[in-house]
Amino acid sequence: MLICRNLSxxxxxxxxxxxxxxxxxxxxxxxTQEITPFVPESTIANIGRNLPQAIQExxxxxxIFTPKWGFINIRRHQLHEVIxxxxxxxxxxETDHPLIIRVASLQQASRIQVYFIDNDDxxxxxxxxxxxxGEEYPDNDERTIFFARGVLETVKKQCWSPDVIHCHGWIxxxxxxxxxxxxxxxxxxxxxxxxxxxxxxxxxFEQPLPEGYLQKILHKxxxxxLLDNVGVPTTYEELAKLAIRYxxxxxxNGDDIPSSLLEYARSLGKPIxxxxxxxxxxxxxxxxxxxxxx
Length: 294
Hints:
The protein is α/β, with parallel strands linked by helices.
């Protein structure tokens, strides 16, 4: 928790990257599983809130996407549906699922808007990984698909081209795969680089995803060969390895990350940003974005 609490202090410190310096990673898309104040504080939620602001104040343009979890109060947090972005249907396992886009502003964060991916089946009246009884949702597999594709389709509609896409949490794990496959020729993502953050086990699901998940993932002309290294049943570690495989850089954001994931990233030669001291975190991420954007 220390790393995220201290991030809020970055706004009052000097910028580490001056606006007149030439940056390759000018536009950063943050896709996060959790973000305060819309959900309770946690390591991932606080990073989701404070890192984008710190990065923006270093001279970059940022946007944030997150799921509209059922306990997020629309009235209290002043969420508004964006009609021009809503209305699309995403087909998952031969079933249409309407995509609803909501938006809210982060107070005390100039010009930072948070976009919420919503759907009656997957998010309305639903919590995160587990329900009120602590049981994991049986359609967590489809929620990963809907969320990842919902974000990318919405960014396309916005005609916004991110230089770096920074993903946080298990529900974002399909974004790297889609960017490098079915969305690779989209002009908005053709040059985008992907950073995937790994978090402690408490933020991940425990039960393997349902049988048939890999077939559901396929989109457009994707080949099943893209998933040939994914074990069945698909556990969190298998899903995380898939994200690592198609990412351009990995960030270590915890003390309880399975060693097998870091070893896998090293075996692929992926750049890894190890866990940072709180006072160094913003600068390290800024520099890491430039590394992967080269």
